[in-house]
Amino acid sequence: MSTERIYRTDQYATENEAVITAVREKNGCDVIACDVSVFYPEGGGQPSDEGTVSAGESAVFGIVRASDDDLFGDVWHETDAPAGTFKVGDKVVLAIDWDLRFRHMQRHCGEHMLSGAMYSLFGGTNKGFHMGAGYITIDIDLDGRMLTDEELDLAQSAVNEAVWADLPVTVTWFDDYESSLALPVRKQVPHDGRVSVVTVGDPGDPFDCIACCGTHPSSSAEVGLVAIYKCEPNKGMNRVYFDCGKAAFEKLAADSALLTDAAKRYSCSPADLVSRLDAEAENVSALKARLAGLSSYVKDIEAAKIEDAVRAGGLEHYVYESDLFSTDDLLKLGFTVINEIPGLFLIMKHPSASTCLLLSSSDEYKCGQLVKEYAQRFNGRGGGRPDNARAIFTSLSDMQAFADAVCASH
Questions:
Q1: Nearest-angstrom CA–CA distance, 185 and 196
Q2: 162-194 burial string, b = 16+ CB within 10 Å, else e?
Q3: What does each C-alpha distance from 219 to 32, 44, 211, 398 come to in angstroms?
Q4: How far, in Å, CA of 197 to CA of 88, rounded?
Q5: pLDDT tens track for 21-74
Q6: Per residue in 163-208, pLDDT tens?
Q7: What pTM did the predictor assign?
Q8: Chain-centroid distance, C-alpha 216
Q9: Backbone dihedral region of 314: left (phi > 0), alpha (psi from -120 to 50 degrees) or beta?
Q10: Taking a C-beta distance cutoff of 8 angstroms, is the pair 342, 331 a contact?
């Protein structure tokens, strides 16, 4: 005996009394099958229902997932009840999380309608569907052509006009695949056994018509809205990111609040935010150019100071410390110096980054080898080439100890 599936005749039912017909174990918990169930099992791109199973007021357990082995077999309910809690013949009450079910209904029906719009408007075929936590994706095949922004806007407008038209959504069952072709199905997917076809609108001239085993609202108006977020290439197709109903509303409301907050920070209206950001980008670009010029000027001055100190003291190695520059700029400064003074071994310390840079224009000093030999002794890591290397430390004291050890070794 297989499970009688209530959702096929009443997708709005939220609970039912049932008798357990089989029990399995998974991960130390009971998995139960019942004679009748409101739970939709995962399938057809739609996640399963979640909810509870109770055997009296004091024994209520969660159902975290429902599944089946085929469309007309038992529905298995994965519970969080310890193995051995339930047995065959127990009378229980199954209850779904209605908010989650209705979200799935809105999202699945909205996906049908958007896929249908892509097909009727552009001849695009849906070859992939995923209902994720934060968005839905469909992969629309247009023989390698990418959808334009104007086409995405057109599809979104067409779908929402159909949503707000309050079109009927009907499910028709057929004994076999061939019989289902009596309806103008958008996509023919042959399979054995009975077939259910979901039609949005007049069956004679539907907005969409496709075989599907999922749950759907009784009218398009219950979808609420369909919002396309973005579209990007994926394996030669158009991967469209969107959402429907309450999930789309929550996302758009959050985005609107974020936009308003960003506009306030720039003392402008949301409509003026893009132009304000463009102006800020120009300012930043100008500041970066100015900073680069100033940095080059300061590096030349510091390089001259180092060279004067080395030549005046007849030094073979020199330690320089500064957090005025980035580590990359400090490295460039070091190269400027050693290129002017052959045979010099240079240690460049960057305190704020706890980093030591070793540079050498002499074959006597192997910078990469020195880092490999000494850095780990002082909780450091790094590496490099014979003429330059970098070592990074967890503390300033370790960095100083490393520099002292390298200097003492030569």
A1: 11
A2: bbeeebebbbbebeebeebeebebbeeeeeeee
A3: 33, 20, 17, 69
A4: 35
A5: 999 999 999 999 999 999 999 988 899 999 999 987 778 999 999 999 888 899
A6: 999 999 999 999 888 998 889 999 887 778 889 999 999 999 999 9
A7: 0.77
A8: 26
A9: left
A10: no
